[in-house]
Design goal:
alpha/beta; five-stranded parallel beta sheet; globular
Length: 220
């Protein structure tokens, strides 16, 4: 059973998402909160698999709540998914840096929401390749942080190659094709790289690849 916690200051949004998620046999909404502070307490109490959290809220916003969840070792298995009205808004990169596994636009199709919850609960890539490419295009305007000590120096050449391909927006199958290896081996390289650089998920791996200078944004 996938356990979901909803954090949003709009009751209509919470009730709509809850009604949809509770219809599924393999998904259960364990609690709701109207602000980030209340939500943090419920996360610690219920230890959900997925937290769907609005990015802009009173008291404690979604970015700060995500940062606090990501920093707590007791919540290492909690995957935070940001909810936003605007898609590629100015807050998304801060949310990903804070530890979010990805983001969803609130007007997402029901089937896409259910798919995203299931994917995130497995710890797989919530960001589809098309979304990753959008992140990369937006990242062209962002400053790079080439500070040493990111953990990338611990990666093998094959792991670095796999990370670079992920940062270019390739799926696991596409990484496997490019490296002429099996999809399972590609996933192993990516997972080992995530462990070595202490990335919670694929989204953080992409951000780290660009911030570290492993991959340079392309202006074309």
């Amino acid at each position: 059973m996938i356990r979901v916690l909803l954090i949003d200051d709009q009751p209509l949004i919470r009730s709509g998402f809850r009604a949809l998620l509770d219809l599924e046999d393999d998904i259960e909404v364990v609690a709701e909160a109207a602000d980030g502070n209340e939500g943090l307490a419920l996360v610690k109490e219920h230890l959900p698999d997925i937290v769907l959290i609005d990015i802009q809220m009173p008291v404690v916003d979604g970015i700060e709540a995500t940062r606090l969840i990501a920093a707590d070792p007791a919540l290492a298995q909690v995957h935070v998914v940001i909810l936003t009205n605007y898609g590629m808004d100015e807050y998304i990169f801060n949310a990903l840096r804070a530890g979010a596994a990805g983001f969803l636009v609130k007007d997402i199709l029901p089937e896409d929401l259910l798919h995203a919850v299931r994917v995130a609960s497995r710890g797989d890539a919530l960001l589809a390749p098309s979304i990753t490419r959008k992140l990369i295009n937006r990242y062209v305007a962002q400053p790079l942080n080439t500070t040493a000590g990111t953990g990338l120096e611990e990666l093998t050449n094959r792991e670095r190659e796999a990370v670079a391909l992920v940062a270019q927006g390739l799926s696991n199958d596409e990484v496997a094709d490019h490296m002429v290896i099996s999809p399972m081996t590609a996933k192993t390289h990516i997972n080992r790289a995530m462990t070595k650089v202490h990335a919670r998920d694929r989204a953080q791996l992409v951000v780290l690849a660009y911030e570290s200078g492993l991959v340079a944004p392309r202006n074309s």
